[in-house]
Specification:
Layout (H helix, E strand, L loop, with lengths): L1 E7 L4 H4 L6 H9 L1 E6 L6 H10 L3 H4 L26 H5 L6 E4 L11 H19 L5 E6 L10 H16 L6 E7 L2 E4 L2 E4 H7 L27 E4 L4 E5 L12 H16 L11 E4 L1 H4 L10 E5 L4 E4 L16 E4 L1 E8 L6 E2 L3 E2 L3 H8 L27 H15 L4
Parallel strand pairs: 1-4, 1-5, 2-15, 2-16, 3-4, 7-12
Antiparallel strand pairs: 2-14, 5-14, 6-13, 8-9, 9-11, 10-11
Helix pairs in contact: 6-7
Length: about 400
């Protein structure tokens, strides 16, 4: 059996699964199973594909965004390096036949402009068609154009993708299984939230001198000896506390971190913008999101709920055209999947699927055992989530304490 995984990053289920024009997708939906796919937090290509490839959540991998802190210093965040975990591409490669990967996401930006994005996509699918003509056991092809083209170009780009997908399917034999998936969807960006600027106004982030124009935190003269919190911006902003004994110039005592963090969470959840409208922010504690906390985990994760704002980490007066350089769409946690191919039943619409379910599903299809400790379930086992073993209150408290130890709050 050959397994082909096609990633369409930025494809939202309501847009893709309901478009009758997309004949290739309709064919696969009629032949297999499909539905919305609940992604990971934070959503986005780098955490999303790391989780899909390993079946591990971002906390287990230590990948909390496209850029992360690499140590406890105040250095600018860098491209994260996931903690070692076997990928399904390694596990699926068999009998000396290679695994193919084309278009895996990176932190760098691709071409700008609708025509350039489509031209890049055509080249990527041409490379994929050539590769699929060879000898392989599993292949991954990712296209991220839907997350990058302008809103007015989305309809035409969907038709382009549908035609290119048809070309890929022509390369497959009768023994192939196809998984189409998006690790995240997209929603329009409504505005921005200068979160570090807000923290500075609240007295939690202190500068030795104020900038004359907006500048990223890494370029500013921060008084770390008086700063208690700062953020790394993005669709899902990450807030870090300046903890004594954990950061070089930390000022918050570990015993006070839980209280300070909860106070900051409450203030952010009730914050309003300059017009008095609620920011509609959800503020999440990482130990409640993830099974483990590896790498340098944020102390809080902030994201919009009903409003599509992008958190920026710059401080200072922003130029009038600042929005021109920002993405027009933001990632959401809901993607989609379609699974069809040799020997698979036509189950139709499936509810409750998660991104972390895809790795166990593909491994079961290939007859390979899943690594121990994966939280996902195979979608081949039915639409209803598998029952989880009951845990005692003492066990839950021990797990939370261990995760707080990972944050540096307890010893």
């Amino acid at each position: 059996m050959k397994i082909l995984v096609i990633g369409l990053d930025g494809a939202s289920p309501e847009r893709l699964l309901n478009d009758e024009r997309l004949q290739t997708l309709r064919y696969l939906m009629d032949a297999g199973s499909y539905g919305p796919l609940r992604g990971v937090i934070p959503p986005g290509p780098i955490p999303g594909w790391a989780s899909l490839a390993t079946g591990r959540d971002p906390g287990e991998l230590g990948v909390y965004g496209p850029l992360d802190r690499s140590d406890r210093s105040y250095a600018a965040p860098a491209v994260p390096e996931a903690h070692a975990a076997p990928t399904i591409w390694d596990l699926l490669a068999r009998d000396g036949k290679p695994a193919i990967a084309i278009g895996l996401p990176s932190a760098g930006s691709g071409p700008v402009g609708d025509d350039a994005i489509r031209a890049e996509s055509r080249r990527r699918f041409a490379d994929a068609r050539r590769a699929l003509g060879g000898d392989w056991s599993c292949a991954l092809v990712v296209d991220d154009g839907l997350a990058r083209v302008s809103g007015g170009a989305v309809d035409d780009y969907l038709l382009h993708l549908d035609a290119e997908l048809g070309g890929l399917l022509e390369q497959l034999g009768e023994d192939a299984v196809v998984l189409l998936a998006s690790t995240h969807g997209t929603a329009p960006r409504e505005g921005t939230f200068a979160l570090n600027d807000w923290l500075a106004r609240e007295g939690m982030l202190v500068l030795n001198r104020q900038p004359s124009q907006a500048a990223p935190l890494a370029e500013l003269d921060v008084n770390w000896a008086k700063t208690s919190a700062w953020c790394v911006g993005g669709p899902y902003a990450r807030i870090y506390l300046n903890v004594h004994g954990r950061e070089p110039a930390g000022i918050l005592e570990p015993k006070d971190c839980l209280r300070c963090r909860d106070e900051l969470k409450t203030v952010l959840e009730t914050a309003v913008d300059e017009s008095g409208r609620p920011l509609a922010a959800a503020v999440l504690r990482p130990e409640e999101l993830y099974r483990d906390l590896r790498g340098i985990a944020p102390d809080l994760i902030v994201h919009p709920t009903t409003r599509g704002w992008l958190a920026t980490d710059a401080i200072g007066p922003a130029p009038a055209d600042v929005a021109a350089d920002l993405p027009h769409a933001l990632p959401t946690t809901e993607g989609f999947f379609i699974l069809a191919g040799a020997g698979l039943p036509a189950l139709g619409a499936v509810e409750g699927a998660r991104l972390l379910d895809l790795a166990p599903t593909l491994l079961q299809l290939a007859g390979r055992p899943a690594p121990e400790g994966l939280s996902g379930r195979s979608l081949l086992d039915g639409a209803a989530p598998a029952a989880r073993p009951a845990t005692s209150v003492e066990d839950e408290e021990a797990l939370v304490r261990e995760r707080l130890r990972g944050l540096g709050y307890v010893s």
